[in-house]
Specification:
This protein is an alpha/beta fold. It folds into 4 domains: 139 residues, 3-Layer(aba) Sandwich (Rossmann fold), CATH 3.40.50; 158 residues, Alpha-Beta Plaits; 115 residues, no CATH class; 111 residues, Homeodomain-like (Arc Repressor Mutant, subunit A, Orthogonal Bundle), CATH 1.10.10.60. It is 57% helix and 11% strand. It contains 24 helices and 9 strands. Strands 2-1-3-4-5 form a 5-stranded parallel β-sheet, with helices on both faces. The protein has a 4-stranded antiparallel β-sheet with strand order 7-8-6-9, sandwiched between helices. Helix 2 packs parallel to helix 3, helix 7 packs antiparallel against helix 8 and helix 12 runs antiparallel to helix 13. The radius of gyration is 27 Å and the shape is globular.
Length: 533
Amino acid sequence: MLKVLLVDDEWIARQYLHHLIHWEQHGFRVCGEAGSGLEAVQLIEREAPHIVIADISMAGMDGVELSRYMSKNPSDRMKLIMLSSYDNYEYVRETMKNGAVDYLLKHRLDSAGLLELLEKVKREILEKEERPSNLNYIEKHWPALNQEVARTYFKELLLGMEGNFPRIEEYFRHLSPIGIRNLVVTAIHTVEKHDRTEEQTALDSNKRMRSILDMIQQGLSQTDNGIAAELDYGKFAVLAAFPEGRSENDIHQRLHTCLQRISSSLEMYLNLRVSFASGSICHKFSQIPLSYSSALRELANEVPAMDGHTENKDVFTLTVRQEKDLVTAIEQSDRIGLDALLDDILESFRSRRAPSSSAAYLVNELIQLADKVWRKSGNKDEDYYAGDFPGRQELKAPDQLERTARWIKQLFRQLTERLNADANNSRYTSYVQYTIQYVDSHYSENISLDMAAEHAGITASYLGRLFKQEAGMYFTEYLNRVRIDHAKRLIGSGKYKVNQINERVGFASYNYFFKVFKDLVGMTPHQYAKSKE
């Protein structure tokens, strides 16, 4: 029998897990329970379990730290399964990178789902111990097993497990039913047309998601090679290959036709509302995560008809002049001018008093403009933005407008920084370059040399000396110059009172702002304002 260790800081949760299945009946034995990561380490060293099932969120040593411990003490016979919740996705990624074999969502945990995963892990453990006797079984069931392996590796790619790229690529190149030519990733989201959550048990929910996954996979079998994977409740990803595709247009047309057929089937037979979006064609294996990010981005910025119709007259769009000015500022690496242009655009949007839902149109238009500039530069194999894109609900919420405005400015700053990375690298070391980018992005906040050094990963004294040596000025002087340049832009716009600008550019007091402005500009803020009238 395989020994299993249960780890959760909630006694009720451990009891629920302990009595969820008949462990010994299925070839498992619970060898111990731990209420923390530290207790788990002690039991691991004493009991040497085959499988550890651990919650991510625990006081003290949590599941992430436990996964790090196990990764530093690897064993082919010991497997880690994580228990997660909706808001723990980033922690899940970390544990998967540390060797966790899979994860279970706590809100959907039931006996069928747990047993299915345990049997999968058992096969992996026994396969290593009894490989010769399993060869006949593998040959007999190879198509199904190969599809499951492809699905598992595909999920690892989407979870961002870059360290496994070589191994996964080798598998797709030689063993998978998909191959590595002309790959396209599609994000599919399904929503129940009628609320079924109250009438569904966890088992019903798992069966329904399996039915959806099977229907998507069946639809893919009618076209070229493809694999589908479930990522969360109602959320799926598809990796399709078109090795004989005649052109990009031909590939996209064939994929769209296939996805429309799948969507129609899901709506007809399972009463679901379906939305999907595909990324660009991947000619390199490393492009798959970026293609998925692109698909998610497009999906997140759709404005669904069910959320209310927006008349064309209420939709705020960029003018040709605004587009040209933005592109020029990006190409000239004019960060201050770029911020001012975006401020003007967003202020115009506010003054129009357009419906909050129409903000999605403006944000999507700005994203498309940024993507266009990035592609024009020849950078197609990687992304320029490192953060998360806002979802549709965020864009529609009136109280999120200011947050969305800050996000848009951050997106364009990163685009400008990436486009000019080579030039910056030739002038500054990475630490100084990072500090300049940090100041340019956070000048309006209460930042300091200590904070910049902490983000750069070096001591403040060393960064201060390095910055003075390479930039020709102290950190505080550079920060003040950036703030004053932005203040001059705001004063010149004529939209703000002089005594309201100091906080917008990061000065805690007007008196200090007044002194620094006069020292750097040679006149007071009011005198400068009059000179611009």
